[in-house]
Design a protein that fits this description.
Number of domains: 1
Distance between the termini: 45 Å
Strand content: 25-35%
Largest sheet: 7 strands, antiparallel
Number of helices: 4
CATH topology: Pnp Oxidase, Chain A
Shape: globular
Order of helices and strands: EEEEEHEHHEEEEEEH
Structural class: alpha+beta
Strand order of the largest sheet: 3-2-6-9-10-5-4
CATH architecture: Roll
CATH class: Mainly Beta
Number of strands: 12
Radius of gyration: 19 Å
Helix content: 10-25%
Bound molecules: flavin mononucleotide
CATH superfamily: Electron Transport, Fmn-binding Protein, Chain A
Length: 197
């Protein structure tokens, strides 16, 4: 039996990303869980931000931001960026995080994060609690430690964090499957196993 309750945003797990905004001199970081991908080609994403956040005005004015993925090592910093405001706190300074110049936007990237996703806002949609910044992904950067010789990304080694109903969790290294494995032909499975050895 399921217990029904008042409708709420119960989808989980979600990423809790560190969104950097501003420029190399004046920058801020806001933690955002209301984010995701909305289109593949061109790659498009969104972040939903309450209008009262300090970062909201920066992102509205600049029309740019960087999504920085959170690792287990960055969890405390990510939480801090989600409970302190840039209106009275220098989050980069207090957390000892390093600003790194981005390629296509003036917002800095967080050097300590293994994946930085540069975004340019194309549209803002106003909802009752949050404004949704729809953005095109204009450049991505992955720490070379997680890129193999063939150029493939090793996301499993990044120790990324999931946000699930108010709590932060490590992803288990146990792989349950991969895209399309449920319909994989036995011949392909054999080939994959041989490749792994
Ligand atoms: C895990 C987590 C997820 C959050 N997700 C969002 C979000 O999706 N949108 C939002 O507006 N605020 C979100 N917040 C709250 C903001 O990060 C928080 O209010 C922050 O202090 C705003 O910083 P700023 O005032 O420097 O912009 C989240 C906080 C945490 C801890």
């Amino acid at each position: 039996m399921k217990i029904s309750s008042k409708p709420g945003p119960l989808t989980a797990p979600l990423p809790a990303v560190m969104v950097s905004c501003g420029d190399m001199e004046n920058s801020n970081i806001i933690t955002v869980a209301w984010t995701g991908i909305i289109n593949s080609h061109p790659p498009m994403t969104y972040i939903s931000v309450r209008p009262n956040r300090f970062s909201h005005s920066i992102i509205s004015e600049r029309g740019e931001f960087v999504i920085n993925l959170t690792t287990a090592d960055l969890t405390r910093a990510m939480d801090f960026c989600g409970v302190r405001s840039g209106s009275d706190t220098d989050k980069f300074g207090q957390l000892g995080l390093t600003r790194e110049a981005a390629e296509t936007v003036s917002a800095p990237m967080i050097a300590e994060s293994p994946v930085n996703i540069e975004c340019r806002v194309t549209e803002v949609r106003n909802y009752p609690s949050h404004d949704m910044f729809i953005a095109e992904i204009t450049a991505v950067h992955v720490d070379e430690r997680y890129v193999d010789e063939s150029g493939a990304y090793n996301y499993a080694a990044m120790d990324l964090v999931a946000f699930s109903h108010g709590k932060y969790y490590r992803l288990s290294p146990e792989e349950l499957g991969f895209f399309g494995y449920s319909v994989m032909k036995p011949k392909t499975a054999k080939k994959r196993r041989a490749k792994k050895k």
